[in-house]
Specification:
Blueprint lengths: L2 H4 L4 H4 L22 E6 L3 H13 L2 E7 L3 H16 L11 E2 L3 H5 L6 E4 L6 H9 L4 E4 L7 H12 L5 E3 L7 H12 L6 E9 L14 H4 L2 H4 L2 H11 L3 E9 L8 E2 L2 E2 L5 E8 L4 E7 L5 E9 L3 E8 L8 E7 L7 E5 L3 H4 L6 H13 L12 H20 L3 E2 H7 L3 H9 L2
Parallel strand pairs: 1-2, 1-4, 2-3, 4-5, 5-6, 7-12
Antiparallel strand pairs: 7-13, 8-11, 8-17, 9-10, 11-12, 13-14, 14-15, 15-16
Bound molecules: nicotinamide-adenine-dinucleotide.
């Protein structure tokens, strides 16, 4: 059994100034196992740095090297990494990551066990093909691609791959969704699921290098780029295949003044989406990107009860999200309401702790502990989330509901979806 599984991690004491007199040889509770794996991070921007931070916090894998096409991103990532190391007790510090000079050298370093692709969406498929030549385990950020054809090609390539590819749909690991999935799919507290409502109210998309997330062709469109997280969750809660999608989406003007290389931003920033599933379940999703703060809400209604999961992140006044889960079972069982949260150090490391547990699932799989016991997103699940998102974008353009069977045929996806589609 590894040291982590038999001892609690007591970071507060490990790092406390008054505990630094304990010699390394006398450390038992404060002893930290050296990382067993080495990662290369490709794309050292916002999420690449979050993965660097989280990998170090989890401690099971070292960040061996980074690659980025922009020197500024490399310099900032290294400076932030160094500041994090400096805050650790001396015996725990890791050397600075090496900086690769090409994508090929980052992917083929024999010292590295796994690659994390954290570049903008429009680069994913090209970077992935180079990464796959290495035969190493690959973590690919969401959305897996900007087009359905590249996403389908990724699923096909992943099938014959000697290692595995995990998609970065990490909202599955947010505390409220872990607990909600457990209540609905494992405990089955709500009975048969009939309706799912999900919403995100948030500020506009943040600034990015070259503003790739403000353009449909570079990002795949807003519903693909960001909302694939929610469509992935809705697909999981429905436990069925989507059959019809209708959406109304548009722009509220917040990016009207944003131009790059003479092009004006063209992404949507608000939407309503309605999804029908083949088991009779229906779902809706609401997006608003012109709100002062971040609020997500999930409401699932089944034949025996209702569940409401809420996350609020008030960036102007608080530094941590407040998260709650309410279960209403009427006369079928015990109702309850609880506040949820991961350990503060984990919550603060990024995306309210979800990234940390996503890493743990990736490393479990790397260690062969379970085929995919951690419940991480597969390329096929990534493709289904993109299918709903893409159909919603198509619907909002045409004003018509999209029948997924016809949409799948029209996009040449039937063969790659295989059994999962013919069951539809
Ligand atoms: N899972 C999540 O919740 C989550 C959150 C944020 C971003 N993301 C995803 O992560 C990816 C990156 O987003 P971000 O917010 O970090 O963007 P970003 O703009 O902050 O960073 C992207 C970095 O990639 C670099 N880059 C661009 N092209 C490259 C290439 N071909 N090779 C190497 N480096 C390259 C850029 O210079 C930049 O440093 C996107 O796919 C995004 O959708 C996922």
């Amino acid at each position: 059994m590894s040291i982590e599984t038999i001892k609690p991690r007591l970071r507060f004491f490990e790092a406390a100034a008054g505990q630094q007199h304990i010699p390394e040889t006398d450390k038992y509770l404060y002893a930290v196992a050296p990382p067993a794996h080495r990662l290369a991070i490709i794309g050292a921007g916002t999420i690449g740095q979050e993965h660097m931070r989280v990998a170090r916090l989890l401690g099971r894998a070292a960040v061996h090297g980074i690659f980025d096409s922009e020197q500024r991103s490399i310099d900032i990532a290294l400076a932030n990494y160094a500041a994090q190391e400096a805050s650790l007790p001396e015996g725990q510090r890791q050397p600075a990551p090496i900086v690769y000079t090409s994508l090929e050298s980052a992917c083929n370093d024999s010292a590295v066990d796994a690659l994390m692709i954290c570049t903008p969406n429009y680069t994913h498929f090209d970077v992935l093909k180079v990464a796959m030549a290495s035969g190493k385990a690959i973590f690919l950020e969401k959305p897996m691609a900007t087009t359905l054809s590249d996403a389908a090609a990724t699923v096909a390539l992943a099938r014959d791959y000697q290692s595995f590819i995990q998609i970065g749909l990490q909202y599955r690991y947010k505390a409220q969704y872990v607990e909600s999935l457990h209540e609905t799919l494992e405990r089955r507290s709500l009975g048969a699921i009939k309706m799912i409502s999900m919403s995100e109210y948030r500020p506009p998309f943040l600034d990015k290098v070259e503003q790739w997330n403000k353009f449909n062709d570079l990002s795949g469109g807003t519903l693909v780029e960001k909302c694939c997280h929610y469509f992935d969750l809705i697909n999981l809660f429905a436990g069925a295949l989507p059959t019809r999608v209708y959406a109304s989406a548009g722009q509220s003007g917040v990016f009207d003044a944003l131009t790059r290389d003479g092009r004006k931003s063209d992404i949507d920033d608000n939407a309503f989406v309605v999804i029908d599933y083949d088991n009779g379940c229906r779902a809706n999703f609401t997006l608003n990107m012109c709100s002062p703060d971040f609020t997500e809400q999930l409401c699932v209604v089944g034949t025996r009860g209702r569940l409401i999961a809420t996350e609020s992140f008030d960036v102007h006044h608080r530094q941590e999200a407040t998260t709650s889960l309410k279960l209403e079972l009427g006369e079928f069982g015990a109702s309850r309401e609880s506040a949820l949260g991961y350990a503060s150090v984990i919550e603060k490391s990024g995306h309210h702790g979800a990234t940390y547990f996503e890493h743990a699932a990736f490393l479990d799989r790397l260690e062969g502990k379970a085929r995919n016991e951690g419940g991480a997103a597969t390329p096929m699940q990534g493709l289904w989330s993109m299918l709903v998102a893409s159909a919603a974008q198509e619907s909002s353009k045409t004003g018509k509901a999209i029948e997924l069977a016809a949409y799948i045929e029209a996009n040449g996806l039937a063969s790659v979806l295989g059994d999962s589609f013919t069951a539809n």
